[in-house]
Write a structure and sequence with these properties.
The structure holds five protein chains of five kinds. Chain A is built from 16 helices and eight strands. Chain A is of the alpha+beta class. Chain A has a single domain, classed as Cytochrome-c3 Hydrogenase, chain B, CATH 1.10.645. Chain A has a three-stranded antiparallel beta sheet with strand order 1-2-3. A three-stranded antiparallel beta sheet of chain A has the order 6-7-8. Chain C has a domain of 90 residues: 2-Layer Sandwich (Beta Polymerase, domain 2), CATH 3.30.460. The relative contact order of chain C is 0.14. Chain D is an alpha+beta fold. Helix content of chain D is 24%, strand content 21%. In chain D, the strands form three sheets. Chain D has a three-stranded antiparallel beta sheet, with no helix packed on it. A two-stranded antiparallel ribbon of chain D has the order 1-5. The chains are: A alpha+beta, B mainly alpha, C alpha/beta, D alpha+beta, E mainly alpha. Chains D and E meet through α1 of D and α2 of E.
Amino acid sequence: MFKEVLAEDQDCLTLNVGPQHPSTHGVLHLVITLKGETILRVDPHLGYIHRSIEKMCESLSYRQFIYVTSRMDYLSAHINNHGCALCVEKALQIEVPQRAQVIRVLMDELTRIASHVLWWGAMAMDVGAITPFFHAFREREMINEIMEETCGARLTMNYMVPGGVMYDLHPNFQRRVKQFISFFKSKLNEYDELLTDNIIFKQRTQHIGVLRREDAISFGATGPVGRGSGWACDVRKRAPYECYHQLQFEQVVEQAGDCYARYLVRMGEMRQSLSIIEQLIDNIPSGDYQAKTKAVLKLPKGEYYSRVETARGEFGVYIVSDGGTTPYRIKFRSPGFSNLSALDHMSRGHKIGDLVAIMGSLDLVIPDIDR
Amino acid sequence: MYLWTRNHFSGVGSASLVVLIGAGIVFSLLAIGLSRFLVKPTWSRQKLEPYECGVPTIGKTWIQYNVGYYLFALMFLIFEVELVFLFPWAVVVKQLGMVALIEAAVFLFILFLGFLYAHRQGALKWM
Amino acid sequence: MNASLETTLQSVLAAAPVPVQLTAGSQWPELVVAPDDWPTLAPFLRDHAELRLDFMFCLTCVDWKTHLTMVYHLNNSSCERVVVVKSVLDRQQPRVASVANIWRTAEFHEREVYELFGVHFVGHPDLRLLILPEGWEGRNPLRKDFEDPVNMIRL
Amino acid sequence: MTLKQYFRNIWDGMRSLAAGMRRTGYYFFHHKEIITQEYPDVPPRLAERFRGEVVMPHNENNEHRCTGCTACELACPNGTIKIITKYEITPDGKKKKALDKFIYHLELCTMCNLCIIACPTDAIKMSQAFEHSVFDRSQLIKILNKPGSRLMEGVE
Amino acid sequence: MISLEFILQSVDRWLRDRLGHEVAVAVEYVLVGLFVILFFAVLGLVLVFMERKVSAWMQVRLGPNRVGPGGTLQTLADTIKLVSKEGLTPAGADRFLFNLAPVLMIVVSMLLLAPIAFARNVQLWDINIGVLYVSAISSVSVLAVLIAGWSSNNKYSLLGAMRSGAQIVSYELSAGLSVLTIVVLSGSLQVSQIIEAQQTGWWLFRGHVPVLVAMIIYLIAVTAETNRAPFDLAEAESELTAGFHTEYSGMRFALFFLAEYANVFVASAIGAILFLGGWMPLHLGNWDAFNRIMDWIPSSIWFFAKTFFFIFVIMWFRWTFPRLRIDQLLELEWKYLLPLGIVNLLVATTIAVAGWYF
């Protein structure tokens, strides 16, 4: 289709958006073809921060490779680590203690909120409202402090170890999380006032970048992008891991498939995550926070795959082991990569301003895409 | 001061145009000149490249470009002329009373019909 | 659930248009298919009423030093029904048909495998380098024999 | 679009905009909600588990607990730690492996805590120092055992 | 009582006593020029600082607080930084036009100062078509934007300039229509007479709903005309990096920046003059004591207070709303503001003709 259009019109403008652009959220390079302001084609060029993590992991032990995955999707670093730990545990058939499972899930959901909150600010910034960004960081900071207290770091926590978590919860943890829950609930309503109900924001996002359900499935667009298109693709529901099958929460699904639907999905997910945390925070079982494991982990020969739901979608870890202390091959199925592949499909025929809104609604984290 | 008091206007106030234009030029040249004077320029090819997010520009910038607002410009012209007609009318409408009001209403109504027609024809769609 | 999926697969694959070898796999049932038969099998798997494997969540390649193995992870979009498809490729001249027109997510994943493993996807709409810089030739970083003395840090 | 709808659009739009303006207006006048941390003036409160850099505690006799077993070196994913050992003659005349230099590359460290977990003698720990900026990368290469320090009695 | 008017008159008298009529006038011209330049510089510093503080407080942060007392000298420090930056002309740009654009921008915003009444009887030029003059001159600035965008040899600049062309041109109409509402009520285009007509009360209070509607339309329109968020499509930071002034650096960028703030000031000043009575103090019916207290406050303070109120509102818009898309922007103008403006004008005229206002 693109070639036909080019042949018809000579007055097409080819524009580089990125790698140094305010709204590509990192070093993503898009080559877009414009006619007037209408986008005919978007061609992503990746690799500006490709570190070949998959290759790196081939020389790291099973304890070490977990920390590298924090550097992929740094906003849900904890959930990435979780996926890796799950895969190793599955291979070694380690039984994770109940307490560790609950701690992991609590941290996962806190991470999810932190990630969504940041996305909320960034999305607002993409459509031109700057104030929400700073409001978002206020809430994110609270989560980061909770994380720092328990995990010892704010962004790349590296709190997961095969068989459990690295430390026990900090004594302040429950109190601070409860504080955060009550604080965040009121702030969510402010979010609605600032952005959700705002007529300009609605106009900027409704009917923009529509991804129909079958396209979302075909593109493998998981996470809020897929659920915004009406596809119930939450791994926590589809293939529950840890203690998710015991929890009461809803899978937020919107049917419209546009930017606003994706926005609503994430807003709903923040509320669902809050309810998960509320269910767990008073019921943390006592016991070990770590299962006993050998000092040197050797995975039996075979292939292992584990899936978790990060803030961006389905994150998969595929380990091929030859029986040694390091993985023979590792493949990380990053949600952002598949979501990005739908960008061209979604943004054709829209304006430049819409492209920015669509990218915002995809919630791209470039290290996650580049790996 | 002589220039400012209202009672001394005739013919003097318009000199402020010259003063202001002069002040504007002096101000901007002063500002640019000052930085020229202070900064020792360095030259490199990369530095002078037009900014396009750090990648060399693809194709020419000055191409035949689809300006979406040709029709907007036409519409604007029509309404701006209307506005110019209305300015003298607005000054005196209070003295002339109802007749002037009705006349203007008719005038605006006809324009409005034209506007509706243009809207129907899709002239107000951004390309 | 796994067992029932396997019985379903057995009955379904009996009617498959190409010969397919079914194994239990370590986690999910695995199909091994010849690279030439893959383009015929792919739409069959996606459109079959009982399977409907319309969600490809992972596509990758493993370098086994003697050969390359393409690994496709397929799933049903509405319920858990994971099937792994494998295809063994020649290491010197790896060629396999593209499935980008069947699962559109394969478009980017295949481009990634193309540059990292050097697998040539026949019929891919736009097989260009995605991650590696323009003008990168030949060497494929994720192959086991890849050496880059400048950029690789040996630990 | 009917006329009623037209005015309804305007009204709803204005109302939603006013809600947003009320929110920002509220913050404009409520300076108590300001969350800025004035970092260099007011030192940040760091959690006790915060991981800033690897240090090796020494006691008052300039003794540390590191036996030079290289468990941390092996555990480190980045090659941050390099341990150089020497042979010491113990009082009873035997040769014994001991730590000569504990070289720590702070510029490579990602504070993942794996070395501290790996250490069998609790010789190293994470400190809360986080102001690591220097003008030259080579200044980040640190030798953690102090000059002249020895192994603490009783640590094997 | 010390007022701006009094100070200026004494300066005038002093000069004339010493130098004689002709020389005094010449000196006064120079003084006016210097005063305007100084005013511009100070205006830039103050407004930028105000913007940063307003945005900071709305964004629950402190804003500049290190340089000078309470951060007041921050903008001065920024200016010094900008002066010490090299002003680049990109390769392939049209050098003459590229350098002309910022100068043109500044000259236009300077010219807009002419009819503004800063205080009682303090005005550079009380032209009898004051408000028409403002709308005429202000549309020249779109030329500067177009020149800047086109001459930069940059695609982002080009897109930004194209957008601003359509935008400013469209919102000119709405601004004009709401200005007309007041002109009808006041019966004059002259700034001083419009203010005088509000002796008994500001139009906002006397003119019923139509004036309120006109004021809202005016505020929206001038926000768009001065290229400020949520209508900052010509700059559209997240889409076009910096829009039409992407290629400008150093002092030439600073001039664009300054001109934007100067335009905001002028637009707010005109708004204050039209709707809030300019330098006219607040008078309430027969409360003589109250009115006397209000009169005691210098007229320049009244003027600046009202102007800064409007500036604050415009800044408030900017730090609250997302940006519109170009077609939505035009839709807002052509489908909502323009028809409403026309109807509103007719209603206001009816009120004026029938004498129904207070």
